[in-house]
């Protein structure tokens, strides 16, 4: 158990915090690098635990590969090892990982000739994979469960004989993450052509490419929430205004939290000018990783709201809709869980008493709850979960006046 306490700063200096490197960008480049080691020149990678888990898996010569709670690593590694001729691997992880669906990706890979079997429950890890050279060609896959299934196929398409023409049989969720994958592949010199519900990926890098890096826009959401709740300005370092990450939509969304911003090179300065009176209403279908922090930001401002497009939150590190419901109601608010959307009303009086708040083994939930400590001492059952994406999170929050002990 850890305790969060806010100490008001006694100077006029605006704190400067720094986001980590994006694990989403890094994980995509790691697959491309593993497929074309002589063409992709390594650069600094994210220090997130998820990125390290995938890096170690790709470098391993062992048959038994533990991917722990890294969902992206499980999906990307499933596709990667399926195209590694002669490699036999057993992919497994935590109990929660074994409850996160992977059937659409496995079925798509099998249709291309991959040899994959389920070790326990059909449709879920653990998996046994017998790697082989895949022929490529056309493949059909639903896109309404996870964009990572689409991205995994796109990333290994250049390793097949004929490339891949991917037919999405349903509307994509988290489409910006598919766009990010396409951007990474194009930066590597691989051809990506998109036509409605079809994505054609073929070719291979013709020349050496330096692996680029970007600061993590998803992580910036917790700093936006801090400013929205506390009213304290921040300078956020490390972000790219013209990023390939979809979560840069924060640039447009902060106005709905009463925040203004300005740019100075890679520093994004934000300040709250007012607390809007109207309810917060957002469709988060394409930006699910922002949901926990943005919802808690509006709740912390004493506002009601409704967010839609949350269906993918059910299969994250935890069921994040249920986690938000439990957290808001524990603090004294009211909620209505509408399956793929969430409505909440503010607490007449915030209540942080009793047992420590659950972080649900989920990094984004921990970073969503933390800014609420502005209102009073707040206990967390596990503060270390942030290492999954943002190992230096608590040190950065100290700069803003939030102390963990």
Write a structural description.
This protein is α/β, with parallel strands linked by helices. It has two domains: 2-21 and 214-404, UDP-n-acetylglucosamine1-carboxyvinyl-transferase, Chain (Alpha-beta prism), CATH 3.65.10; 23-210, UDP-n-acetylglucosamine1-carboxyvinyl-transferase, Chain. The protein is 30% helix and 21% strand. It is built from twelve helices and 21 strands. The chain has helices at 23-35, 49-59, 71-82, 103-111, 147-156, 175-187, 217-230, 250-253, 291-300, 320-330, 363-369, 393-400, and strands at residues 2-6, 16-18, 40-41, 64-66, 88-92, 115-118, 127-130, 137-141, 164-168, 191-195, 198-202, 209-210, 234-237, 259-264, 267-272, 280-283, 305-308, 334-337, 342-345, 378-380, 402-404. The strands form six sheets. A four-stranded mixed beta sheet has the order 2-13-15-14. The protein has a four-stranded mixed beta sheet with strand order 4-5-7-6, covered by helices on one side. A hairpin with a 2-residue loop joins β14 (259-264) and β15. The longest helix is centred in the middle third of the chain and has 14 residues, at 217-230.
């Amino acid at each position: 158990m850890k305790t969060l306490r806010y100490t008001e700063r006694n100077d006029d200096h605006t704190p400067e915090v720094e986001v980590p490197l994006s694990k989403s960008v890094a994980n995509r480049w790691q697959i491309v690098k593993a497929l074309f080691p002589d063409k992709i020149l390594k650069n600094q990678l994210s220090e997130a635990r998820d990125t390290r888990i995938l890096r170690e898996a790709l470098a391993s010569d062992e048959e038994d590969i533990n991917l722990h709670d890294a969902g992206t690593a499980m999906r990307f590694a499933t596709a990667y090892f399926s195209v590694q001729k002669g490699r036999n691997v057993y992919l497994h992880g935590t109990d929660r990982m074994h409850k996160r669906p992977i059937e659409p990706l496995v079925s798509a890979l099998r249709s291309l000739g991959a040899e994959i079997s389920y070790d326990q429950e059909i449709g879920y890890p653990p998996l046994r994979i017998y790697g082989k050279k895949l022929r490529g060609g056309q493949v059909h896959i639903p896109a309404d469960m996870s964009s990572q299934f689409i991205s995994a196929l796109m990333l290994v398409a250049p390793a097949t004989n004929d490339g891949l023409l991917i037919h999405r049989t349903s509307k994509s969720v988290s489409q910006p993450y598919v766009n990010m994958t396409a951007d990474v592949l194009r930066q590597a010199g691989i051809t990506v052509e998109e036509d409605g519900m079809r994505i054609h990926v073929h070719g291979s890098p013709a020349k050496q490419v330096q692996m680029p890096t970007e600061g993590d826009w998803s992580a910036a959401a917790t700093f936006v929430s801090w400013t929205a709740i506390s009213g304290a300005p921040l300078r956020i370092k490390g972000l790219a205004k013209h990023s390939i990450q979809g979560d840069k939509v924060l640039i447009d969304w902060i106005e709905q939290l009463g925040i203004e911003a300005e740019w100075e090179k890679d520093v994004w300065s934000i300040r709250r000018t007012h607390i809007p009176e109207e309810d917060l209403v957002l469709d988060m279908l394409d930006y699910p990783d922002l949901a926990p922090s943005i919802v808690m930001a509006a709740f912390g401002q004493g506002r009601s709201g409704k967010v839609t497009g949350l269906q993918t939150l059910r299969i994250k590190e935890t069921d994040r809709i249920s986690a938000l419901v439990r957290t808001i109601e524990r603090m004294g608010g009211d909620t209505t869980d509408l399956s793929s959307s969430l409505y909440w009303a503010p607490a007449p009086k915030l209540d942080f008493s009793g047992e420590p708040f659950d972080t649900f083994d989920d990094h984004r939930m921990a970073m969503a709850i933390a800014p609420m400590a502005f209102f009073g001492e707040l206990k967390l059952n596990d503060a270390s979960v942030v290492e999954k994406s943002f190992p230096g999170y608590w040190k950065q929050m100290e700069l803003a006046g939030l102390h963990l002990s």
